Amino acid sequence: MPLLKSYYEVPFWLQNNHIHTIYPTLRRKLIAPAYKRIRLKLRDEDFLDIDFLEAKPQNHSLVILFHGLESNSQVSYMVGMGLYYKSKGFDVAAVNFRGCSGKPNLKLSTYHSGKTDDIDEVFEYFLAKNQYQQIVPIGFSLGANALLKYLGEKKQVPEVKMAAAVSPPCHLHSASRQLEKPYNRIYSKRFLASLIQKVLLKKNISSDFPFQDHIKLKTLYDFDSWYTAPVFGYHSAMDYYEKNSSLYFLAQIKTPTLILMARDDPFFPVKCYPVREADANDSLYLEIPSHGAHVGFVENSHDGFYWHEKRIWEFGLQTGLVKK
Predict the structure, then answer these.
(1) What gap in Å lies between CA 277 and CA 173, rounded to an integer?
(2) Using CA atoms, how far apart are residues 265 and 225, in angstroms rounded to an integer?
(3) 3-state DSSP assignment of residue 213
(4) pLDDT tens track for 23-40
(5) DSSP characters for 67-106?
(6) Is the four-CA dihedral 234, 238, 242, 244 of positive or negative sign?
(7) What was the pLDDT predicted at 2?
(8) How much is the CA Rg of the chain, to the nearest whole Å?
(9) Helices 116-127 and 142-153, axial angle in degrees (round to 10)
(10) Given this model, what pLDDT does residue 293 score?
(11) What share of the chain is helix, strand, coil (3-state, %, to 5)?
(12) What strands lie across the sheet with 163-166, from one edge to the other?
């Protein structure tokens, strides 16, 4: 599809893309709803936790949310999207990737940017209920890349009427290198420290713990070379990036999918924006507002919801893919 024209207008005080990226984390105050926690047992005898919110008994509509790197179901963008879809009558399933729910998972491996087998098991769990007639999966950042890759790998599921990806790092290698830029170190240091800490907690799992010398790790590329690639069976960090970048799976997507990416996203170089791929696939709808930063899209509104939350819902209604 051709590039969609965007009407998003950034508040004047958020024109700086770094302030815009950080603002929702620090200043958006949302009270997480009273989720019911579902522990999903996975085929490899590990688990992940899903925080579930029922809009009404025997509902037929479900939104499934996938978070970003070292995030969880409780962060503001997950809570905001969940509350918005609940207000529209959808049940909400906020997925915590392995090891992200506050409870360490059982295996040496956790999750990564393209680990789609866990996403597949989440879908299997809800489809097995034979309850939902329309399902809308929405991913953010890392979760958006993984969701796009999954949609490219998977045959179209009739119940999945549409999907949305917010700020996906479609080309992982260039996004990783972008995070090494001096102006992005505030983010990369936080991600790296959290990831290393999570790996070191796994010393109790293996008597022959293979991961030492973590002090030498300076970048996310280092981490992916040290941990992600060997644990998940890739030859190198580059091999991992190339085999898991959603950019290479977009041509196979058959599910109507809205991709929202801000042109001023500090995490993404030009290669991350799938303009040609979207233009060549009638199932992809790419919208690139001039502003929005990384999973920002802040909007001054009386109801407290942000632009991207409303935009995804509006897109579903306008295209007839989603029914109230």
Answers:
(1) 18
(2) 25
(3) coil
(4) 999 999 898 889 999 999
(5) --TT--TTSHHHHHHHHHHHHTT-EEEEEEPTT-SSS--S
(6) positive
(7) 67
(8) 19
(9) 70
(10) 98
(11) 40, 15, 45
(12) 36-41, 47-53, 91-96, 61-66, 134-140, 163-166, 257-260, 284-287
C-alpha 30/C-alpha 98 separation (Å) is 24
The two tokens of residue 271 are 């290669």
- Determine contact, residues 268/169, Cβ cutoff 8 Å: yes
* 30 φ/ψ sector (left φ>0, alpha ψ -120 to 50, else beta): beta
Amino acid at 153: E
pTM exceeds 0.85 for this model: yes
Q: Is 269 left (phi over 0), alpha (psi -120 to 50) or beta?
A: beta
Cα distance between residue 59 and residue 255, in whole Å: 22
CA–CA gap between residue 154 and residue 283 (Å, rounded): 14
Q: Are 292 and 262 in contact (CB under 8 A)?
A: yes
Q: What are phi and psi of 36, to 5 degrees?
A: -95, 125
Specify the 3-state DSSP secondary structure of 198.
helix
Coil, strand or helix at 8:
coil
**pLDDT attached to residue 211:** 83
pLDDT under 50 in the chain at which residues?
Answer: none
Domains and CATH numbers, the chain: 12-171+247-318 (3.40.50.1820)
Please tell me the predicted confidence (pLDDT) of residue 209. 77
Find the helix packing angle between 17-27 and 76-87, rounded to 10°: 70
How far apart CA 94 and CA 92 sit, in angstroms, is: 6
